[in-house]
Amino acid sequence: DQHRPRLALAALSRRYGEAVQAPRGPLRADLLGNMWAQQWDSIYDLVAPQDVGDIGHDLGELLRAANYDPARIVETAEGFFTSLGFAPLPQTFWKRSMLTRPRDRDVVCHASAWDLDNRDDLRIKMCMRVSATDFVTVHHELGHSFYQRAYSRQPYLYLGSANDGFHEAIGDMVALSVTPDYLVHVGLLDAGQIPDASRDIGLLLRQALEKVPGMAWTVLVDKWRWGVFDGSIPPEAYNRAWHDLRLVYMGVVPPVARGEEDFDPGAKYHIPASTPYARYFLARMLQFQFYQRACEIAGWKGPLHRCSFYGNRDVGARLEAMLAMGRSRPWPDALEAFTGTREMSARAVLDYFAPL
Ligand code: X8Z
Ligand code: ZN
Question: In terms of DSSP bridges, do strands 122-125 and 27-28 run parallel, antiparallel, or are they unpaired?
């Protein structure tokens, strides 16, 4: 559809003026509300068409209104996993994790999950704020924790996920179950506030702004890195190649001219940290594939995006069985154990967003 991409352009142009956002594009990366423009959900209010109404449920606002603090967010996410039948996190998790930025020292704030002894010393480390983004990130990190614990009895060489995309997909799959019905269940929303089906487009648009730009972004990061490694991107073109890929894959440009005296890829944690990134691309698909399967196991009949498998022990048992395999089998075996198919597919992504 020729019209759709222009919605964001037109909205940003109107908001910031044509001198800032050229109405014919490309999009200016710094207007999208995330330092790397990897998720665009914070421009939801700007781009939502009038006729979907305002779903009015920015999760961050709900959390702040209910006086959630970081520990309470982690407890809520843990509660989702325990509702599926997973054992609660160990006491040491609460003592040894770092949930907020310490005031007395410099730390790496990029969120991560650690299993220090392959027994049960599970911890997470992040600089959380009470926001919708961090609410999802906490589920993401706990997905790592429960995965680590599930395979901890495997022999040393099998301590890991089936492929690296699996590890990144579990918590996100759970976070997809954070539906209005679920928010009512945990008391963050009144039953009367549940949007009716006519508001689902708004909800899906919000999800799309969060997830879809990331599909392009998660491809280009390692495209760039592998180009550096194989020499097709020479040192004198590091920054130009980065911005070329940003434009081709994401349609975004930097706000000011950049040159080779700048090194913009270095601003993304995973580049200097040498953390592979294609895993997040795989996880974009896998999380929807797992979620769709979980909803099927739970007997869900309605539109996919309304499904929450909260509290379903059957889903939990089957999920744990896959997680417990660690990397003891080729990944298609693990995929098959939970989903019944041996192929990764983006079909579930399309099904999820079909109404949008
Ligand atoms: O790095 C992460 C996690 C830690 S494994 C917070 N993510 C990617 C990113 O932030 O760039 C999760 C989504 C993509
Ligand atoms: Zn992760």
Answer: unpaired
Q: Residue 89 Cα, ligand 1 centroid: separation in angstroms?
A: 22
Residue 21, ligand 1, Cβ within 6 A: no
Hey, which residues are catalytic here? 110-111, 140-141, 144, 168, 270, 280
**Which phi and psi angles does 281 have, rounded to 5°?**
-65, -50
Angle ∠(320,80,100) on CA atoms, nearest 5: 110
Task: Enter the pTM of the model.
Answer: 0.95
Dihedral of the CA atoms 280, 37, 252, 223 (nearest 10)? -20
Q: How many angstroms separate the alpha carbon of residue 177 from the centre of ligand 2?
A: 18
Measured in Å, residue 66 CA sits from the centre of ligand 1 at: 27
Question: Does ligand 1 have an atom closer than 6 angstroms to the CB of 279?
Answer: no
pLDDT tens string 249-285: 999 999 999 999 999 999 999 999 999 999 999 999 9
**What's the one-letter identity of residue 264?**
D
111 in ligand 1 pocket by Cβ < 6 Å? yes
Element at 93 (helix H, strand E): helix 91-96
Q: Which residues make beta-bridge pairs with 124?
A: 113
What does the alpha-carbon distance between residue 79 and residue 146 come to, in Å, rounded to a whole number?
12
